[in-house]
Each structure stands twice: as structure tokens, then as C-alpha cells.
């Protein structure tokens, strides 16, 4: 049974056999868990039930339903959440094989049920329990026992290839690339521990497609530092087992210290709202420093989306790929200041807005438009336009630096352990 999120798992033979089964009361059947797969959060289950001669259509065949998920750490601390179902063809279709009817589903925990202070513990859970389970059929709904599975939050390495290359940053800092690993969520480069807290990523190219590649930096709970890119995983999904390709790492992405503010007077906003056909154009400098230039460009009315917006730009002297990872994120998503400081390296191009009384606003979003040389952004408000002077602050701005030398890394379909 197909599911988009299973492409990687099926490509690399990661579906696991299961020996779990449930006797279905009053049905004279057994529900059998056939295959499972997880990436630490998503959990896929393929199950089957006996077919009986009296079965006339799918509605008469028992179907498994899960309402809750409990994630448990290795210290026994549990987090109960609502089970969220990935919509797709697997939760609607079934098939018959050797007198059994097969169905599948993909679920994940509702992350909104987890408090921010518990996120690190939750993300390192090693046991996933499907609970509040029930069997539904034409006979009605019947509760059944929970099902528990072991999961690996760090990702099992299923194959790897040596890289043994060194990235030399603009300031001569060296980062050693050891291996290209293939694991249950994708692909990653293992490194020695990098020491630059302002380094947040890299960019490069794929030789065959000519498409840009962005690489994020992730520090796992095991203390290792990884450089990851979904582009490499997508490349592998398209490759035949005999194909070879190549990707490059050519530039580093850094977050800068400092914050930079500009004021949008309420009289200007009132003028723009009352005259949507007239754009208020500005070219006010927000910050001009080496590698970064930001300008407040004025107030516009987006006819396409029927939205009023505050426009600003980030300019660089680099190629468009360099702007690929420039995307402001509202600061109000990070409410715990201590954790925000700890995670500072991973937060780039933050935008915060305060009114004249210093109150932080939350009802806005930031859209990006990539042009030939600049990154243009528009701040729009979800509800009413604020009738107040606004102070808009940009922080954790990013800049691009070329590596001392571009690194080329060959990639081919890995030899998988049987």
C-alpha cells in the first residue's frame, strides 16, 4: 500500500515485521500487525484481519482506530497526546491477500499537546504507545488493548559511505566531514563538533539537476553534530541502484548579532488603508553593514491576496541561491527566553513588532518574494490593521560567506545490510 511518506522507507527496506496480534471479541477474527515503520514521530502500521464468508463489503470488515498516543522516555516519563492521522490513500483503501484483508494508516502525535518546556524530553522518547484503540465495523465499536512499540529518536543508521573531506570557512575555521549516513529519516553528513555558534547552515548545488541545495545543522541528543539536507534524500529516491551523482558545498550561512528597528507611523498606515490604490514608497535604511543591507520600502496593498502590507528588503552581493534560506520568522513563536537563547544558533531572520506601549503583537505573518538580487518581504496582519505607531525589529539576520574552496561529494545508492 502506497503513501508518499513511505517512499524512503520502502526504497531502503525499512519496514519492520511485527509479531503483535489482537483477538477481536465477538468477531471470531484476529487482527494482526504485519509491518511498522517510524521516524521518531510518524508511525506507520500495516495490519490485516481474517476474511469471513459472510463479509459482503469493506464496512463489515473490522477497522482499527487510534485516538491517543503516549510517548515515553527511557526514564519512564510519559506524554499523552491526541493521535493525528496523515490523510492519504492508505486510510481509505484496503486489499485482499490470502484470505486476509489489509489496511494501513500513518499517525503522529499532536505536537500542540506538548508544552514547550517538555519538548526536548518528548523528542527523545523511546517508546510509542497507540492507546484508546477501538475496532469499528458494521457491528459497532469495541475497545481493544493498547499497542506499544520501541522507537529510536536518533535514527538508526542503515548504511554509510566515507567522505573524509574538510570544509574551510571564510575565517579559516575547519569542519571535518566524516561520513554520509543513510538513516530512518533521510541522509546526513557526520562531522566533528563545530565550534562556531553563529554558523547555522551551508548551501551548494546538485551536479545533475543544477538545483540549489540547502544544508541545516542539527545537534543530536547523542552529542554528535550533523549536516542534513532533504535534497540529498530526494536525489536518492530518483536514482537507480547503479546511478551516481554529485553534490557540492560551496557557501556557509551565518547568523549575526544585533537587532535593527524601524518605525511605521500610524498616520502612514491610515493613509495606506484609506487609499489602497496608492502605494507609500520609502527607501529607509534599517541596517547597512558588511554582507547585509536591509531597507524599509514602504506600505503596499496586495491586490492578489487583498492584504495590506509593510514591505522591507534584505540585499546581498551574492547569487540568488544565497538568499534561499533567508526567511523571517515571527519572534513570538519562541516564548521561553532561556530556551530561545540556547537555540539561538538555529533561529534566523526574526521579525518582532511592538505597539507604542511596548506590547508585542502576534497577529501577523511574513511572506517572502525572491527577486534577481534581493529578498523582498511583506508583513501582513491577520485581523484588523493596528491603529498605532509600530516598531518593527529585525534580529538574527543571516549572511553568506563563500568557503575557501568548494567541496564536491559523490553520492551513489548505498549498499544496504540485509
Architecture blueprint of SSEs:
Elements: H1 7-11, E1 16-17, E2 21-24, E3 29-38, E4 43-50, E5 63-72, E6 78-85, E7 95-97, E8 100-109, H2 119-123, E9 127-137, E10 140-144, E11 147-150, E12 157-168, E13 174-183, E14 186-191, E15 199-205, E16 212-219, E17 225-228, H3 230-238, E18 244-255, E19 259-264, H4 266-274, E20 280-289, E21 292-302, E22 307-315, E23 329-330, H5 337-342, E24 350-354, E25 364-370, E26 374-381, E27 390-395, E28 398-412
Parallel strand pairs: 23-24
Antiparallel strand pairs: 1-3, 2-3, 3-4, 4-8, 5-6, 5-9, 6-8, 7-8, 9-10, 9-11, 12-13, 13-14, 14-17, 15-16, 15-18, 16-17, 18-28, 19-27, 20-21, 21-22, 22-26, 24-27, 25-26
What are the segments in which pLDDT stays under 50 over at least 5 consecutive residues? 319-345
Predict the CATH topology of the largest domain.
Immunoglobulin-like
The geometry reads as globular
Q: What is the level-2 CATH architecture name of the largest domain?
A: Sandwich
Q: Strand percentage, roughly?
A: over 45%
CATH class of the largest domain: Mainly Beta
- Biggest sheet character: 11 strands, antiparallel
Q: What's the total number of strands? A: 28
Radius of gyration: 26 Å
Helix count, per DSSP?
5
Query: Average pLDDT, to the nearest integer?
Result: 80
Distance between the termini: 22 Å
Overall structural class, as computed from helix and strand content, comes to mainly beta
Helix content percent band: under 10%
What does this structure look like?
- The protein is mostly beta strands.
- The chain folds into 3 domains: 4-150, Immunoglobulin-like (Sandwich); 157-255 and 402-412, Immunoglobulin-like, CATH 2.60.40; 259-396, no CATH class.
- Helix content is 8%, strand content 51%.
- It is built from 5 helices and 28 strands.
- It has helices spanning 7-11, 119-123, 230-238, 266-274, 337-342; strands spanning 16-17, 21-24, 29-38, 43-50, 63-72, 78-85, 95-97, 100-109, 127-137, 140-144, 147-150, 157-168, 174-183, 186-191, 199-205, 212-219, 225-228, 244-255, 259-264, 280-289, 292-302, 307-315, 329-330, 350-354, 364-370, 374-381, 390-395, 398-412.
- The strands form 4 sheets. Strands 1, 2, 3, 4, 5, 6, 7, 8, 9, 10 and 11 form an 11-stranded antiparallel beta sheet that branches. Strands 12-13-14-17-16-15-18-28 form an 8-stranded antiparallel beta sheet, with helices on one face. A 5-stranded antiparallel beta sheet has the order 20-21-22-26-25.
- The longest helix has 9 residues, at 230-238.
- The chain starts with 6 loop residues before the first helix and ends in a 6-residue tail after the last strand.
Amino acid at each position: 500500500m502506497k503513501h508518499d511518506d513511505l517512499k524512503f522507507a520502502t526504497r531502503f527496506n525499512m519496514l519492520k515485521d511485527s509479531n503483535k496480534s489482537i483477538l477481536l471479541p465477538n468477531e471470531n477474527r484476529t487482527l494482526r500487525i504485519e509491518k511498522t515503520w517510524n521516524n521518531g514521530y510518524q508511525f506507520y502500521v500495516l495490519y490485516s484481519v481474517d476474511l469471513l464468508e459472510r463479509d459482503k463489503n469493506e464496512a463489515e470488515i473490522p477497522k482499527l482506530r487510534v485516538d491517543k498516543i503516549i510517548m515515553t522516555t527511557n526514564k519512564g516519563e510519559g506524554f499523552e497526546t491526541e493521535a493525528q492521522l496523515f490523510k492519504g490513500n492508505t486510510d481509505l483503501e484496503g486489499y485482499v491477500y490470502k484470505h486476509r484483508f489489509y489496511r494501513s494508516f500513518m499517525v503522529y502525535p499532536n505536537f500542540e499537546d506538548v508544552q514547550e518546556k517538555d519538548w526536548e524530553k518528548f523528542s527523545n522518547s523511546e517508546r510509542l504507545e497507540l492507546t484508546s484503540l477501538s475496532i469499528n465495523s458494521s457491528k459497532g465499536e469495541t475497545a481493544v488493548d493498547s499497542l506499544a512499540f520501541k522507537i529510536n529518536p536518533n535514527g538508526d543508521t542503515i548504511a554509510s559511505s566515507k567522505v573524509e573531506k574538510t570544509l574551510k570557512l571564510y575565517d579559516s575555521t575547519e569542519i571535518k566531514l566524516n561520513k554520509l549516513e543513510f538513516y530512518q529519516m533521510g541522509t546526513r553528513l557526520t562531522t566533528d563538533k563545530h565550534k562556531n555558534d553563529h554558523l547555522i547552515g551551508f548551501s551548494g548545488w546538485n551536479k545533475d539537476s543544477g538545483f540549489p541545495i540547502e544544508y541545516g545543522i542539527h545537534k543530536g541528543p547523542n552529542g554528535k553534530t550533523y549536516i542534513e539536507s532533504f535534497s540529498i534524500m530526494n536525489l536518492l529516491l530518483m536514482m537507480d541502484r547503479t546511478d551516481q551523482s554529485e553534490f557540492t558545498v560551496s557557501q556557509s550561512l551565518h547568523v549575526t548579532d544585533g537587532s535593527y528597528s524601524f518605525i511605521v507611523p500610524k498616520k502612514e498606515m491610515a493613509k495606506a488603508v484609506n487609499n489602497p490604490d496608492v502605494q507609500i514608497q520609502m527607501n529607509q535604511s534599517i541596517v547597512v553593514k558588511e554582507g547585509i543591507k536591509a531597507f524599509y520600502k514602504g506600505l503596499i496593498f496586495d491586490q492578489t491576496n487583498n492584504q495590506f502590507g509593510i514591505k522591507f528588503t534584505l540585499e546581498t552581493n551574492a547569487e540568488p541561491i544565497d538568499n534561499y534560506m533567508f526567511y523571517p520568522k515571527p519572534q513570538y513563536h519562541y516564548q521561553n527566553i532561556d530556551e530561545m537563547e540556547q537555540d539561538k544558533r538555529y533561529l534566523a531572520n526574526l521579525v518582532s513588532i511592538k505597539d507604542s506601549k511596548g506590547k508585542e503583537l502576534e497577529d501577523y505573518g511574513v511572506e517572502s518574494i525572491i527577486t534577481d538580487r534581493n529578498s523582498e518581504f511583506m508583513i501582513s496582519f491577520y485581523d484588523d490593521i493596528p491603529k498605532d505607531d509600530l516598531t518593527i525589529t529585525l534580529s538574527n539576520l543571516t549572511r553568506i560567506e563563500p568557503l575557501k574552496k568548494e567541496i564536491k561529494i559523490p553520492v551513489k545508492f548505498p549498499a544496504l545490510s540485509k
